[in-house]
C-alpha cells in the first residue's frame, strides 16, 4: 500500500509546481490555448500560493500538488495535479475520497472545475459521485462538477 501524504508548499516548491503543471496539464492547455511558456510562467507566478498549496507525497516522494479552499457552503477543489508517472495508482482517488468524506462530515458540497478536454479526470469525478452542474469560461472550456444535486427541470402543469 502506498503511503500518501500532504505537506505545506514552500516558496522553494515554486519551480517544482511549475514543472509539474507542465507535465500534468500541458497537453490539455495546448489543446485549448496552445502552450506559451511566458504566459504559463506568468500565470503560475500569479497563482502560486505556498501558504495555501500542499505538496502530495507518495512513499515519501513528491508526486503532485493540491489546493483546496474551505468555503462557507462548500469545499472547493481549486487544483489537483499528479505527475503522469504517478497517475493511475489510486493517489488521486484516495485524496478525492478524503475530500468527499470531509464534505459529508461538514455537511458541505465538494465542488471543482475541470477542463472540458480532460476526459480522464471527468470520468474519475463521475465515478466518485460528482456530476456536471454547468459549463463556463471562454467557449465553455470548463465544467463545474459538484456533489450538490442538480435542480430538476421546470415543473409543467398545475
UniProtKB/TrEMBL annotation:
Q: Which InterPro entries match?
A: Acyl_CoA_acyltransferase (IPR016181), Bact_Acetyltransf (IPR050832), GNAT_dom (IPR000182)
Q: Which residues form the N-acetyltransferase domain?
A: 4-150
Query: Record keywords: Acyltransferase included?
Result: yes
- Which Pfam families does UniProt cross-reference here? Acetyltransf_1 (PF00583)
| Keywords from the named record | Acyltransferase, Transferase
Molecular function (Gene Ontology), one example: acyltransferase activity, transferring groups other than amino-acyl groups
Specify the protein name: GNAT family N-acetyltransferase
Q: Which organism is it from?
A: Actinacidiphila oryziradicis
Its taxonomic path starts at: Bacteria, Bacillati, Actinomycetota, Actinomycetes, Kitasatosporales
Amino acid at each position: 500500500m502506498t503511503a500518501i501524504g500532504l505537506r505545506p508548499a514552500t516558496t522553494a516548491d515554486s519551480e517544482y509546481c511549475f514543472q509539474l503543471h507542465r507535465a500534468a496539464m500541458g497537453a490539455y492547455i495546448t489543446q485549448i490555448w496552445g502552450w506559451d511558456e511566458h504566459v504559463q510562467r506568468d500565470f503560475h507566478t500569479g497563482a502560486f500560493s505556498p501558504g495555501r498549496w500542499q505538496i502530495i507525497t507518495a512513499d515519501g516522494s513528491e508526486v503532485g500538488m493540491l489546493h483546496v479552499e474551505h468555503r462557507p457552503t462548500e469545499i472547493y477543489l481549486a487544483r489537483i495535479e499528479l505527475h503522469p508517472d504517478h497517475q493511475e495508482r489510486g493517489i488521486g482517488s484516495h485524496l478525492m475520497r478524503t475530500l468527499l468524506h470531509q464534505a459529508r462530515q461538514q455537511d458541505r458540497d465538494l465542488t471543482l472545475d475541470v477542463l472540458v478536454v480532460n476526459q480522464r479526470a471527468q470520468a474519475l469525478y463521475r465515478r466518485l459521485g460528482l456530476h456536471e452542474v454547468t459549463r463556463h469560461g471562454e467557449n465553455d472550456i470548463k465544467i463545474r462538477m459538484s456533489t450538490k444535486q442538480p435542480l430538476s427541470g421546470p415543473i409543467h402543469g398545475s
